[in-house]
TrEMBL record:
GO cellular component annotations of the record: early endosome membrane; Golgi apparatus; late endosome membrane; lysosomal membrane; plasma membrane; synaptic vesicle
Gene from which the chain derives: CLCN3
Organism of provenance: Balaenoptera musculus (Blue whale)
Protein name per UniProt: Chloride channel protein
Primary localization class, coarse: membrane
Membrane topology: Multi-pass membrane protein
Region called Disordered, residue ranges: 818-862
Taxonomic lineage: Eukaryota, Metazoa, Chordata, Craniata, Vertebrata
């Protein structure tokens, strides 16, 4: 039924003159299909339009007209309802840019009239910096609050500080004089639940009681989190980055960035992290920051009335979110540019940098971790890496790519099963089950019992003279008086071997639970679990290489640079490289990921190993599928998102995708001067299309323009109220000159002013590769397909997304993964020398036999 709605996703393209007259490349924007709505919602008002006057035509409440007149010659005031956007539809990028240009010109023309107008001009010019400043301040403050609360509630599962209930375990023992170096985490002020309930600090009874309380608090936090999400803000679940990417591409999800979502996401993120689930808070922090940016944008008319400008604020907010999540301001800007933003002009780059700076400054001022750093697992290494180590680094990259490919396929399969089975109807039960399994399996292993950020910190940390972790339990043969930062490589002790086995079990546990956790109905980030998996694998590899170099230092690969008694291998560096590789394999990030990890460590000399591992993980992952986890979830949720990084390499033509098809009803069109008001109203009532091509006559089928369903309805209703003599038999004229009518005829209704005189058109022979690029780069929602000037059909963004999905599903089982990387163009003539048919060069009907399958491949080959 949806495929029959030819124009259901189309709001007409603006005047071509408004594009060709753009002052810079930033005016040529990418858009998508949208349905315009007569009504607006007062709840959250996420992405609403307003009344603005266009550049080459008047924008009435955001509705575009292809001339500089009003909607009707008789109308002098804006028409309520025109130009607002409905939920789950897309904005008109070109129209929004035209609105902003006209606003800017109007302000510049008035600023010399008075001091007040000059003040308004300065306020408008500085409003962009003010809104990103407020966004950075709020993002940094909320991130600090989340970090402090999550640490306290995580430690609450193990015990409580009697001297100050609001202190976590580490803070509770800071002021104690009774701690020892070996047992620095034990102090009289901190009491475990076993000590409080049964009065035992050691023994089986104490272990069982702590085990029970650990599971109790984990289930309580998880239940409270999912209940708050379900009742108050369903949009607060998940990572939020797939939806942020879709919103930044122009899609409307009303309420997703609203005040209730911000409040509930902030609270439930703390609860979800404290519950011990295999998730992180870094991804949801991007969502929290974007909520702040969206809310503050309503304080400034420059952004509250313009959807394209508002998305510039959201791009800057996403940079601030990553800045406070990882303590990486520059990495946050690059993340916004590489991963989430759809439109990123130069001024947005500057404001994103400033927002990330402000957010990082606020978080540093709060100092939530007490280490004067922006993140918990900041480390510094002092040993250089050597050329031979590139080989294990690349192996870690291969592991990261394999992990990413496995995780994407497994998680998408589980999420699809959740959507299609009754299990998905009980989100609270699912969260409780996952939290129970996680708590039961995590408590016995000290590395899975740890908070994931604490685990990454321990894995990243190099073994020094003050480290008491079992990972640093080496047999020390050095002189006790020789305590320096660079301790030479030593043979591993029993504690190291025991830790390796525990890390192997933790690796298996994290891999399994992360697959089932990402996507449940609580805030759940993917950055930290992926980094933890890579850090575990990297630390194991690092210890193995370290012991290999110690026991076989006379091998030719170690002989030149690793002498006896030298500090050659840093296992923590391998953990860092493995973390970057696994995160890159899942998200397919490259540049921004390397910069983020570099800012985490502060080591400029380790960029080359990071680049090698991240690039390897991307290549390996791309061999199994070019989608990252966020793009896969966008496709799973059915969002109309055209990824600019994807290449369209199929050999279809515009005629293969356009509607109507041969089995569909004929194209619904209007004629320019021989239809009555009743005819148009009947067509509107009998169809659900969002617009209609206007042709010269039924005989010629020559294209005149494109009229929107909404504009037709509003124009007719307004004419009935304000123009005397408008009746059902009144002739509707889209032509420039009204045809001669009999004297007794009612007064004609002139609607040329609502007609888009320059709708974008392609011929039926246009390759879809070109059509896809046109949609991406010119901001189209639909284009008309013609043949020698005669209208044949229409292509909407919805048709294009469905066609791409169908071709992808059909090509995957028939071709190897690298088949789609080849650039191919449809030949004009077939093997027999005759012109190739327009509609059947690719068979879209189900393949029923091996012979039919072979015919399909041969028909698409060059």
């Amino acid at each position: 039924m949806e495929s029959e709605q030819l124009f259901h996703r189309g709001y007409y393209r603006n005047s071509y003159n408004s594009i060709t007259s753009a002052s810079s490349d930033e005016e040529l924007l990418d858009g998508a299909g949208v349905i315009m709505d007569f009504q607006t919602s007062e709840d959250d008002n996420l992405l609403d339009g307003d009344t603005v006057v266009g550049t080459h035509y008047t924008m009435t409440n955001g509705g575009s007209i292809s001339s500089s007149t009003h909607l009707l010659d008789l109308l002098d005031e804006p028409i309520p309802g025109v130009g607002t956007y409905d939920d789950f539809h897309t904005i008109d990028w070109v129209r929004e840019r035209c609105k902003d240009r006209e606003r800017h010109r109007r302000i510049n023309s008035k600023k010399k009239e008075s001091a007040w107008e000059m003040t308004k001009s300065l306020y408008d010019a500085w409003s962009g910096w003010l809104v990103v400043t407020l966004t950075g301040l709020a993002s940094g403050a909320l991130a600090g609050l989340i970090d402090i609360a999550a640490d306290w509630m995580t430690d609450l599962k193990e015990g409580i500080c009697l001297s100050a209930l609001w202190y976590n375990h580490e803070q509770c023992c800071w002021g104690s004089n009774e701690t020892t170096f070996e047992e620095r985490d034990k102090c009289p002020q901190w009491k475990t639940w076993a000590e409080l309930i049964i009065g035992q600090a050691e023994g089986p009874g104490s272990y069982i009681m702590n085990y029970i309380m650990y599971i109790f608090w984990a289930l309580s936090f998880a239940f409270l989190a999912v209940s708050l999400v379900k009742v108050f803000a369903p949009y607060a679940c998940g990572s939020g980055i797939p939806e942020i990417k879709t919103i930044l591409s122009g899609f409307i999800i009303r309420g997703y960035l609203g005040k209730w979502t911000l409040m509930i996401k902030t609270i439930t993120l703390v609860l979800a992290v404290a519950s011990g689930l295999s998730l992180g808070k870094e991804g949801p922090l991007v969502h929290v920051a974007c909520c702040c940016g969206n809310i503050f944008s309503y304080l400034f008319p420059k952004y509250s009335t313009n959807e394209a400008k508002k998305r510039e604020v959201l791009s800057a907010a996403s940079a601030a979110g990553v800045s406070v999540a990882f303590g990486a301001p520059i990495g946050g800007v690059l993340f916004s540019l590489e991963e989430v933003s759809y439109y990123f002009p130069l001024k947005t780059l500057w404001r994103s940098f400033f927002a990330a700076l402000v957010a990082a400054f606020v978080l540093r001022s709060i100092n939530p971790f007490g280490n004067s750093r922006l993140v918990l697992f900041y480390v510094e290494y002092h040993t250089p890496w050597y050329l031979f180590e590139l080989f294990p680094f690349i192996l870690l990259g291969v592991f990261g790519g394999l992990w990413g490919a496995f995780f994407i396929r497994a998680n998408i399969a589980w999420c699809r099963r959740r959507k299609s089975t009754t299990f998905g109807k009980y989100p609270v039960l699912e969260v409780i089950i996952v939290a129970a399994v996680t708590a039961v399996a995590a408590f016995p292993n000290p590395y899975t019992r740890l908070n994931t950020s604490e685990l990454i910190k321990e894995l990243f940390t190099d073994c020094g003279p003050l480290e008491s972790s079992s990972l640093c339990d080496y047999r020390n043969d050095m002189n006790a008086s020789k305590i320096v930062d660079d301790i030479p490589d030593r043979p591993a002790g029993l504690g190291v071997y025991s830790a390796i086995w525990q890390l192997c079990l933790a690796l298996i546990f994290k891999i399994i639970m992360t697959v089932f956790t990402f996507g449940i109905k609580v805030p759940s980030g993917l950055f930290i679990p992926s980094m933890a998996i890579g850090a575990i694998a990297g630390r194991i590899v690092g210890i193995a290489v370290e012991q290999l170099a110690y026991y076989h230092h006379d091998w030719f690969i170690f002989k030149e640079w690793c002498e006896v008694g030298a500090d050659c291998i840093t296992p923590g560096l391998y953990a860092m490289v493995g973390a970057a590789a696994c995160l890159g394999g899942v998200t397919r990030m490259t540049v921004s990921l390397v910069v983020i990890v570099f800012e985490l460590t502060g080591g400029l000399e380790y960029i080359v190993p990071l680049m090698a591992a991240v690039m390897t993980s991307k290549w390996v992952g791309d061999a199994f599928g070019r989608e990252g986890i966020y793009e896969a979830h966008i496709r799973l949720n059915g969002y109309p998102f055209l990824d600019a990084k994807e290449e369209f390499t199929h050999t279809t033509l515009a005629a293969d995708v356009m509607r109507p098809r041969r089995s569909d009803p004929p194209l619904a069109v209007l004629t320019q001067d021989n239809m009555t008001v009743d005819d148009i109203e009947n067509m509107i009532n009998e169809t659900s299309y969002n617009g209609f091509p206007v042709i010269m006559s039924k005989e010629s089928q020559r294209l005149v323009g494109f009229a929107l369903r909404r504009d037709l309805t509003i124009a007719i209703e307004s004419a009935r109220k304000k123009q005397e003599g408008t009746v059902g038999s009144s002739r509707v004229c889209f032509a420039q000159h009204t045809p001669s009518l009999p004297a007794e005829s009612p007064r004609p209704l002139k609607l040329r002013s609502i007609l888009d005189m320059s709708p974008f058109t392609v011929t039926d022979h246009t390759p879809m590769e070109i059509v896809v690029d046109i949609f991406r780069k010119l901001g189209l929602r639909q284009c008309l397909v013609t043949h020698n000037g005669t209208v044949l059909g229409i292509i909407t963004k919805k048709n294009m997304v469905e066609h791409l999905e169908e071709l992808t599903r059909r090509a995957e089982p028939l071709t190897p993964p690298w088949y789609h990387h080849k650039k191919r163009y449809p030949p004009s003539y077939g093997p027999d020398g005759k012109p190739r048919p327009r509609l059947h060069n690719v068979q879209l009907s189900p393949v029923t036999s091996e012979g039919e399958e072979a015919r399909l491949l041969s028909s698409t080959a060059l």
